[in-house]
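> example.struct
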């Protein structure tokens, strides 16, 4: 009896062990199974209500998973320059956590200025690690809206004016980020090129400009980087809001480009339940619903893609075809991110992230002008430096709207210079002007007291008096992240520098010949005093390492190699959107919609400057170095190519100066015989090369049919027309040193 009992126990134990071992994982949890099988399996297990749940927010930045099936919640965060501090569940106010400070990376305009695709990858990877550590599954960025007007308050979050440059830089950023199991959410799709009236503006643009200028970077994000997320924009196109826009989302994005990821609404960008159902929106965030307005706790149920959608299904007005498509996309997103068992744990504020930030900043800073070699600062002869300007002591990581950050450190320019120059040189400071004296932005206290009692005249007199005694005067001016500056939600009011900086700069130039102006901004600004100021540096918003990276360049520790990602016009009237009187648009009679017609079509930035013969202050692609380079005569490997072929240009680059440095070789294509109007030239390839003094390297640049094509709006096709072309090679759009003619058969 005892033996039989023991045997029974043993066999029961074995059976249960075996069953524990062999109990198969449900397909959706089994990551050895193909993605689409997992998606279908999960979908088949979900109730109608659960499906509705996963397609809209449950808090400001998260959406629910499926509790019953063990599918976790999904967490998003801004984006795009670092991981935003956590906000309250149902409110925009910061949550007051003490574990949510980050490394603030340089703004995307700076990244674009590096023209270094490896750095874009490193940016994405570093940000992905920060996001992982903070438990975020999707970063709301990067932004690739084209700079059409320098007044746009959000240009600092984007990658400049050129579709090719933005495409080449956005792809590795997304690949780097997503290699960590964190989704990108490329934004704002599309035509969101100014901020004022961003919810009411209906953009009217022809198909050529749409396909050739405004869409390519998004297309590259989708078809090359395979972004898992994309955010619709606030504005309208063809009279429909872009978060549920039939043409943009269903026809182009999901149709022509075969996008399999999610379309996320911009926060509050969904306006219509039926359009949200049918026109391509997959996940709704940030909506303030009728009557409940901001932050009422059950408002989430009233989102368009929540109970209102469910009610329409229950009434039989919609089946579940659209819903299942949305849920499939959301499930794909989950399996790629928060249900990816292979993903790591990330890291926050690591040395590696600071190092990445510093290198990106160092390579993105642009030396715009350096008359008589005023820079780098001569640290042997210099005894006394005067630093002037509010931007030397003002934090730029908080503020600016949704890209606001709580940086673990932000080294300010004044401190960076003092650190770099050590004890031998006296670094004095004078405020010079008052911009925004707020001592706290987004809960982040200012390190220097910005309150100021003195009058503008007193501030100026002090700066000028001290400037007379200094060996160098370094002004840190420009814009800031306050409302109507470089800030989301509104555009700048003027192209000129705010806060009376122009006359201050001129007064300083009158008394000191070693004047250096460092412009902190994401946008070009007017510089009526340009010829009076020997050295001008574009210093962007550089994040945590701003002061260190700027000091590196000013003292020559870093040899600058940044190149402008946009054309720096002398006056607003030189910008097509303004010359043609198209900005900000014309209100319709009902005053609900403002039409903005992009009359300049494909002629944006340098394309416009070339066409109209406008000499900008600084051209697209321009940027100086402390060394000098010689770009040799380019050679092509053939004289004629076919549409399936490619052509390679070889050019030698020599560092002819005394310092190591990097040069960006830029190749522009000119279509000499075309049946449609084309820009005089367009960037189609580039390469950054690092050279020791005296070193020469051969650079090879290859282009194919795509580089020769335009979008033919008559046939709705990309077309490369046979005929004569030129490859124009140089180191800036206004400095072409070599020209090679070839033919397309
Ligand atoms: C911005 C988005 C941002 C979102 C969430 C919106 O106002 O336009 O870029 O990601 O808010 O903060």
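> example.seq
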């Amino acid at each position: 009896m005892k033996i039989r009992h023991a045997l029974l126990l043993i066999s029961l134990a074995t059976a249960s062990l075996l069953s524990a071992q062999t109990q198969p994982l449900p397909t959706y949890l089994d990551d050895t199974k193909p993605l689409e099988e997992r998606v279908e399996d999960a979908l088949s297990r979900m109730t109608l209500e659960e499906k509705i749940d996963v397609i809209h927010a449950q808090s400001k930045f998260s959406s629910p998973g499926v509790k019953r099936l063990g599918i976790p919640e999904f967490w998003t965060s801004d984006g795009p320059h670092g991981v935003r501090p956590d906000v309250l569940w149902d409110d925009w106010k910061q949550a007051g956590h003490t574990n949510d400070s980050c490394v603030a990376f340089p703004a995307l305009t700076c990244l674009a200025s590096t023209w270094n695709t490896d750095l874009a990858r490193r940016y994405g990877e570093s940000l992905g690690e920060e996001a992982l550590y903070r438990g975020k599954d999707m970063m709301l960025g990067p932004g690739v809206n084209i700079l059409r007007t320098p007044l746009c308050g959000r240009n600092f979050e984007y990658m400049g004016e050129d579709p090719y440059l933005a495409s080449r830089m956005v792809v590795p950023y997304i690949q780097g980020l997503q290699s960590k199991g964190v989704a990108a959410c490329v934004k704002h799709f599309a035509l969101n090129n100014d901020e004022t009236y961003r919810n009411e503006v209906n953009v009217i643009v022809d198909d050529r400009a749409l396909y050739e200028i405004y869409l390519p970077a998004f297309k590259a994000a989708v078809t090359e980087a395979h972004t898992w997320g994309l955010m619709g924009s606030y504005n309208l196109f063809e009279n429909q809001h872009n978060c549920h826009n039939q043409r943009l989302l269903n026809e182009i994005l999901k149709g022509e480009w075969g996008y399999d990821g999610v379309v996320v609404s911009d926060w509050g960008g969904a306006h219509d339940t039926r359009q949200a159902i049918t026109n391509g929106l997959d996940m709704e965030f940030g909506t303030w619903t009728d009557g409940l307005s901001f932050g009422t706790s059950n408002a989430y149920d009233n989102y368009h893609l929540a109970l209102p959608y469910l009610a329409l299904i229950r009434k039989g007005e919609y089946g579940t075809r659209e819903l299942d498509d949305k849920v499939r996309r959301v499930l794909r997103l989950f399996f790629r991110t928060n249900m990816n068992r292979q993903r790591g744990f990330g890291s926050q504020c690591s040395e590696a992230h600071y190092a990445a930030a510093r290198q990106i900043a160092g390579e993105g800073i642009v030396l715009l002008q350096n008359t008589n070699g005023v820079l780098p600062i001569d640290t042997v002869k210099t005894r006394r430096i005067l630093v002037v300007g509010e931007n030397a002591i003002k934090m730029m990581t908080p503020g600016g709207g949704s890209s606001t950050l709580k940086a673990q450190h932000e080294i300010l320019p004044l401190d960076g210079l003092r650190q770099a120059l050590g004890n031998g040189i006296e670094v004095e400071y004078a405020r010079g002007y008052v911009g925004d004296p707020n001592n706290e932005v987004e809960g982040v206290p200012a390190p220097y007291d910005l309150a100021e009692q003195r009058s503008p005249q007193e501030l100026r007199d002090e700066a000028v008096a001290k400037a007379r005694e200094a060996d160098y005067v370094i002004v840190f001016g420009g814009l800031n992240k306050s409302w109507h500056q470089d800030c989301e939600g509104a555009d700048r009011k003027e192209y000129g520098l705010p806060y009376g900086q122009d006359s201050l700069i001129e007064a300083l130039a009158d008394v000191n010949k070693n004047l250096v102006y460092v412009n902190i901004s994401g946008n070009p600004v007017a510089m009526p005093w340009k010829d009076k100021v020997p050295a001008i540096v574009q210093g962007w918003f550089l994040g945590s390492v701003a002061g260190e990276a700027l000091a590196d360049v000013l003292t020559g520790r870093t040899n600058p190699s940044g190149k402008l990602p946009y054309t720096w016009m002398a006056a607003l009237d030189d910008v097509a959107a303004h010359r043609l009187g198209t900005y900000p648009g014309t209100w319709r009679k009902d005053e609900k919609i403002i039409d903005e017609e992009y009359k300049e079509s494909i002629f944006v930035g340098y394309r416009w400057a070339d066409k109209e013969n406008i000499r900008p202050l600084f051209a697209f692609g321009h940027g100086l170095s402390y060394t000098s380079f010689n770009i040799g005569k380019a050679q092509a490997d053939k004289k004629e190519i076919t549409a399936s072929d490619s052509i390679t240009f070889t050019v030698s680059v020599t560092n002819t100066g005394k310092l190591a440095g990097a040069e960006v070789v830029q190749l522009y294509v000119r279509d000499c015989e075309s049946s449609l109007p084309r820009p005089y030239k367009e960037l189609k390839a580039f390469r950054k090369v690092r050279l020791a003094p005296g070193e020469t390297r051969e650079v090879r640049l290859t282009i194919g049919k795509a580089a020769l094509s335009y979008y033919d709006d008559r046939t709705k096709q990309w077309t490369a027309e046979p005929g004569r072309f030129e490859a124009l090679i140089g180191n800036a759009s206004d400095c072409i040193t070599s020209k090679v003619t070839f033919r397309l058969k």
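> remarks
The chain has 20 helices and 30 strands.
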